[in-house]
Amino acid sequence: MIKNLHIKNFQSHEDTFLEFHPSVNIIIGSSDSGKTAIIRALRKVVWNRPSGDSLRSHWGGESRIELSGEDWKIIWSKDKMDMYSLAISGKREIQFKAIGTSVPEEISHILNINEVNLQQQLDSPFLLSESPGKVAEHFNKIAKLDKIDFSISNINSWIRQLTSDIKYTEEQETSLQEELKAFEYLDKFEAEVETLEEIDKRYDVLWHKRSKLSGIILDYNTTNDDIKRESKLLQFEEPLNKIFKWKDKIEDIGTEGSELQFIVKQIKEVQEEIEDQKELLSLEQPVTNLLSLYNKLNTANSQRNLLFKAISTISNINTRLNTGKAEYGRLQTKLNEIKICPFCGTKIKII
Fold first, then answer.
1. What pLDDT, on the 0 to 100 scale, is given for residue 114?
2. DSSP string, 202-250
């Protein structure tokens, strides 16, 4: 419910504030006093129509219309463009831009006003001047019967379309059945085709066998011709076999001779190596003596290193001892100079 209306710079209203009663409100005044402008201001906020600057005051500046309810406040304003703002329960205002004659959805939801509950001054009484058909159409719209009628109309249209499709499909099926009768011989034809295919497969097998047999016969004839052509050479077969046997024996003897020569060569090489090693055996004792002396030298070097380390340690100890003696003499001299003990305060008796 609208509690108050504040109009600024809109038609004849420079700055007008109206507070409405929760029940019935009557606005009275002389002609051209701005009564109709109040309704126009409400319509401007609700529908943002008419567009343009025709309803703005002649003195210029920003036009502003404020509507306040129980816990909300809506402001329409126009300077360079139409603007809306919405505040609910005292929260920060939300700004909206109205494009053309559109109204932000949030504003329309809060106002919840339509043509039925907001009429102009010269509008005819609600439904009283309408025809029975228009009145029925209005109440059907309220009860949403128009949507039911629309749905039923769509369903009937679908049923008609489905009926037509079914009829067309049945006609197609009948036509296809008639066409199918023309191909009843295909079953018998299929069996004949299968028989022909089996015969064709057998023919292919026989043809391949015939080709192989022809090849074998050709090879036999060729071989037979070769034998006849080479029959003259058969008389030399036995002498040639003997020659081949003799050749094999000669090759075996040659192989054995080669192996024997290789063994003799290895024996000679071993004998030469033994002769070379005899000279080394004569040097065995001197080498042994040298190795013994080398080991003794390593031992002597180790002992020498240990001795050097001991001498260095003794030298360091002597140096530290001399330093300690000097420090002791210095401290003794200093103690002799002090007649009283710094710790107990007694006189020091020097012996």
1. 74
2. HHHHHHHHHHHHHHHHHHHHHHHHHHHHHGGGGGGHHHHHHHHHHHHHH
Distance of CA 172 to the CA centre of its chain: 52
User: How many other CB atoms are found less than 10 A from the CB of residue 67?
Assistant: 21
Check pLDDT > 80 for residue 22: yes
The answer to whether 107 touches 66, Cβ cutoff 8 Å, is no
Residues β-bridged to residue 67: 5, 74
Q: Which pTM value belongs to this model?
A: 0.39
Structure tokens belonging to residue 48: 């943002």
Gap between the Cα atoms of 232 and 191, Å rounded:
64
- Rounded CA-CA distance 10/63 in Å is 6
Residue among 50, 61, 64, 59 nearest 16 (CA): 64
Q: CA nearest 3: which of 19, 17, 24? A: 19
Q: In a 3-state reduction of DSSP, which class is residue 126? A: coil
Identify residue 138 by its one-letter amino acid code.
H
Residue 13 exposed, middle or buried by CB count within 10 Å (0-12, 13-18, 19+) = buried
